[in-house]
Amino acid sequence: MVDGCRKPAAPSSDLKIEASITPQPVRTGTETISFRLLNAANSPVTGAHVQLEGDMNHPGMAPVFADAVEVMPGDYKAAMNFTMGGDWTILFHIALRDGPKVERQMDVRGVESN
Amino acid sequence: MSKSETATSMAGEEDRISEEEEFLAAQPFDLLKIPALGPLLRWRHARTLLETPLFAISVIMIVEGLWGPTLSPKNLATVLTWVHFRGALVLAILCAGNLFCLACPFMLARNFMRKWITPRFAWPRILRNKWIPIALFVGVLFGYELFGLWASPWLTAWVIVGYFAAVLIVDGLFTHGTFCKYVCPIGQFNFIAATASPLEVAVRDHDVCDGCATKDCIRGRRDPSSSLVVLQRGCELALFQPAKVGNMDCTFCLDCVHACPHDNVGILSRLPAEELMSDPQRSGIGRFSRRNDIAALAVVFCFGALMNAFGMVSPVYTVEGWLKRTLHFNSQAGALGILFAAVILVEPALLLGLAALLTRTIGGVKSGWLAIAVRYSYALSPLGFAMWLAHYGYHFFTGLYTIVPVTQNALAELGWPILGAPQWTLVGLPKTFVEPLEFGFLLLGLFGSMLIAWRLAHDDSREHPVRAFLPWGTLSVILFLCCVWLMTQPMDMRATMLAG
User: Fold this and answer.
1) Residues in chain B with pLDDT values less than 70
2) Same structural domain, B327 and B250
3) I need a labelling partner for A59 at 20 to 30 A (CA). Which of A82, B31, B162, B216 fits?
């Protein structure tokens, strides 16, 4: 369901993100997005402020937002409300503890309607 | 003057005023008589003025689509095309007329090209019908679903580029308004939809035309000293104003308005869809009842609206799964093709065929079943238009403000953030406002379709008009219920429809 992360057109760095969504299959309603932030040395990145933005692939739809909480060092969770079925893109707006802002993107295809 | 003479004179004056008032009351509203707007539209370069901003926006959309954000909701090409353009187009047709063709950006490029390139060929006679644009229209709908055009700024930009290229090639080779009349799928959509418009480019006073010797509205005006120099074009789509009926094939280009030496062509009000209630001889078209191609356009227009909406709701994936299991099908294009064939070909053939057969047998209409199906197929246009309105209107209204953050973002990415940071939470009007509007559109469409079917049935079967009407009234209700069902389904938009 989750196609994985890829570089967006926006700012890049060596930051990596490993994300998953539960429960599967992803359905409309609130789902939990868990992700780990890793630096170039594969060490957890702690203390980041991460806001998630969910966009439908069709233009003109309301985006949804969620703030992530760091549950363990480098591990974050956010509750995202998928308001309709279809293909979504999740943007991770990441503000690192030492200042830089990074953006990452994840495609979530085929969210099923309830 | 004696008292009696004065009284007689006053009575005469009152009668004259009363007659004038009656005459004025009978005159339709004329958009060209509106202060400021009328003179502007009558200005020779009005169309160029209107085309220029749309051309500039098209260029911006191409640039943004090819090099801007890859995310569809954040790109001007996709937002403007699939949210604003489509919605504004159908709403303009509902409220006024075929205004998009009037301000068509492709025609600006084409007219510019024709300053240097004079087309040499006449469009082949065998192709002078709507079959090619019907195929292109279905192709666009098919490609939209298969490639998920709404989700790809890049593909959207290439569609616009392709459109410009097609216009320049066709109208670079062929004379007159060949692209508009015989190729353009957007144009055909506009033509059939505009049959339900409240405005029409039409003659103000037919007596003036009767006395006209020059017929400039169709011939145009040439320089007396050199017949090769065209001073003013006449209608490029072969619509002779005095014999023109309705909006079919009219691009609202206003060439006839500018060409008429008697200022006798206006943009007049009329009863929406009135032109579908009778079957007169139409200039440049002939009789609707003898035009199987235009009837097919009306059918595709109506059932295409259902298919286009069906591709955006959850049940389509149930059908797709069933198709794949039943037919052991893996090809996305194949399964989608079967679905399209079922909705746009088989379903209308069965429904219209059955309705025509019943009209013939129980309604006592003497014509053959195909002739009946062709004649009554136009009655489905208002309902089809209503479905397009409900669908595109929904996206337009619920996404109305998204143009703001997307423009803010585009400017910010150019390093010119004069509108501030993008406010992505700006979206559109609430669904509680939009949804009643959708159902209002559908009810209007049903009413229009029923009314046209009734008028046709009344003309066809004086003895049993109700019986002749019933099959088409029932068909209209069935299609209306399909539309309502579609609009109440949960939205489910996947970039590749059959990706599952």
Assistant:
1) 1-26, 495-500
2) no
3) B162
Element (DSSP H or E) covering residue B313 = none
Which member of A8, A59, A87 has the closest CB to residue B494? A87
**One domain, residues B317 and B254:** no
- Calpha distance A35→B499 (Å, rounded): 26
Query: pTM to 2 decimals?
Result: 0.90
Q: Is the pLDDT of residue A44 over 90?
A: yes
Instruction: Quote the tokens at residue B348.
Output: 């209308």
Q: Is the CB of B73 less than 8 angstroms away from the CB of A58?
A: yes
Q: Which long-range contacts link A32-36 to residues 24+ away (Cβ below 8 Å)? A: A32/A77, A32/A78, A32/A79, A32/A80, A33/A66, A33/A68, A33/A77, A33/A78, A33/A79, A33/A80, A33/A90, A34/A75, A34/A76, A34/A77, A35/A68, A35/A75, A35/A76, A35/A77, A35/A92, A36/A74, A36/A75, A36/A76
The whole domain housing B159 covers 28-274+282-286
Whether B129 and B259 map to the same domain: the answer is yes
Establish if B35 touches chain A: CB-CB under 8 angstroms: no
Helices (H) and strands (E) counted in chain B, each on its own, are 23, 5
B335 Cα distance to chain centroid: 29
Contacts 24+ apart (CB under 8 A), B452-460: B452/B273, B452/B276, B452/B277, B452/B378, B452/B379, B452/B381, B452/B382, B453/B376, B453/B379, B455/B277, B455/B278, B456/B277, B456/B375, B456/B376, B456/B379, B457/B359, B457/B363, B459/B278, B460/B359, B460/B363, B460/B365, B460/B367, B460/B375
pLDDT digits (tens, 9 = 90+) for B129-148: 999 999 999 999 999 999 99
pLDDT at A95 over 50: yes
Which among A28, A105, A110 has the least Cβ separation from residue B499?
A110
Residues B53 and B172 in one domain: yes
Q: Which ipTM did the prediction report?
A: 0.84
- pLDDT of the residue at B253: 96
- The count of domains in chain B is 2
- So what's the pLDDT on residue B335? 84
CA distance B403 to B74: 9
Which chain A residues touch B154 with a CB distance below 8 Å? Answer: none
User: For chain A, what is the mean pLDDT?
Assistant: 86
Rounded Cα distance between B371 and B328, Å, is: 39
Instruction: List CB contacts (< 8 A) between A112 and chain B.
Output: 314, 492
Q: Tell whether B307 is covered by a domain.
A: yes
In this prediction, residues A1-14 reach a mean pLDDT of 46
